[in-house]
Automatic annotation (TrEMBL):
InterPro entries: Nitroreductase, Nitroreductase-like
Annotated protein name in UniProt: Nitroreductase family protein
Organism taxonomic ancestry: Bacteria, Pseudomonadati, Pseudomonadota, Gammaproteobacteria, Vibrionales
One Pfam family of this chain: Nitroreductase
Taxonomy, superkingdom: Bacteria
Residues passing through the membrane, by range: none
């Protein structure tokens, strides 16, 4: 009898979890597109200017295409100027729009293009370039292959989940470098919604791990703990309701491999919790923004001289690969 009831309990748990997700999206999500809010506007700015970057990168680019998004971007920049709270993506958006207009060279003659040019010219002198590259870049095949691993099997097959670390704390500069490199992770419309919280105090680490259910037996060995999040404000269409999980998961894996490339061991700690657990953790760690969805915790540290690890064999490729 119990075995028949349990599946319905799982379904009810799913409904409760989905209700909590809906509550968070309704309260913190970017569906309202509040252009007055610097953080939310910058996600939207990235989404729009990236569409112009893509338009300029196509070899079969039509001069008349992209002006609708260019108008959206002008409006975004006008809000940044009006409320005097320019962000990183606002500056890039300005640079991209400037290049988009210059690349067109006045070829497009329409009321829409004229409106964009006129409103853009009114922004002249307010935005200063941050000198980061934007728009498009030309790379040779040789350039694109520079990152190829000589022996990729050695790199990927040497990564294991390490649960017991040495007593050496992670060098802050080394961690910052790894996080900087992991920012090259692809994301939907280049919105880069990630945020990493670092907990290094041993007492606070233990307080955090109490809320995570997969660290029994090794929690006292964790020297540094990362809480990887994705900002739900970055996503506005209802169809993107899961995108913060997807982008956050991709970023998490990039960070794991970046750390591995620098000799830092790690163990992914699952955060598939109900709303009650999520709220309890947030109550103890108020530094975590309400709009940041927790993707996972990541225990990191220097490996010991000798490490006893789970083999964790992988499924054969025949079971996970289908050619259509």
């Amino acid at each position: 009898m119990l075995s028949k009831i349990k599946p319905f309990g799982r379904l009810i748990k799913w409904i409760l979890g989905a209700s909590y997700d809906f509550y968070r999206y309704a309260r913190f999500g970017g569906w309202k597109i509040d252009l007055k809010n610097k953080e939310q506007r910058n996600y939207y700015s990235a989404k729009v200017y990236h569409s112009l970057e893509k338009s300029m990168s196509f070899t079969r680019n039509r001069p008349s295409s992209g002006w609708g998004n260019a108008l959206f971007l002008v409006e975004v920049l006008e809000y940044a100027k009006k409320f005097d709270n320019v962000g990183y993506h606002d500056l890039l958006g300005y640079d991209v729009l400037k290049k988009f207009i210059e690349n067109n060279g006045g070829q497009t003659k329409s009321s829409l293009a004229d409106q964009v040019r006129h409103r853009f010219s009114a922004l002249d002198g307010y935005f200063e370039s941050n000198n980061d590259p934007s728009g498009t870049i030309v790379m040779t095949e040789k350039d694109l292959r520079k990152g190829m691993l000589i022996q990729p099997d050695e790199f990927f097959n040497s990564r294991y989940s390490v649960r017991e670390f040495s007593n050496t704390k992670i060098c802050k500069d080394k961690l910052n470098e790894a996080i900087s490199l992991s920012l090259k992770t692809p994301s939907a419309c280049n919105r880069q919604p990630w945020h990493v919280y670092h907990i290094s105090d041993s007492k606070k680490i233990q307080e955090a791990l109490v809320h995570q259910s997969g660290n029994k037996g090794f929690n006292d060995k964790v020297q540094d703990l990362l809480v990887i999040c994705s900002d739900i404000r970055a996503f506005n269409p209802g169809s993107e309701r899961y995108q913060h999980w997807i982008d956050g998961g991709m970023y998490s894996m990039s960070l794991v491999y970046t750390l591995h490339s620098m000799g830092i061991a790690s163990c992914c700690l699952n955060w598939s919790h109900q709303g009650k657990n999520d709220l309890a953790f947030r109550k103890d760690f108020e530094e975590i923004s309400p709009s940041h969805t927790i993707i996972m915790m990541l225990a990191i540290g220097e490996p010991q001289e000798s490490n006893k690890l789970c083999i964790s064999p992988r499924r054969p490729i025949e079971e996970i690969y289908t050619e259509i």
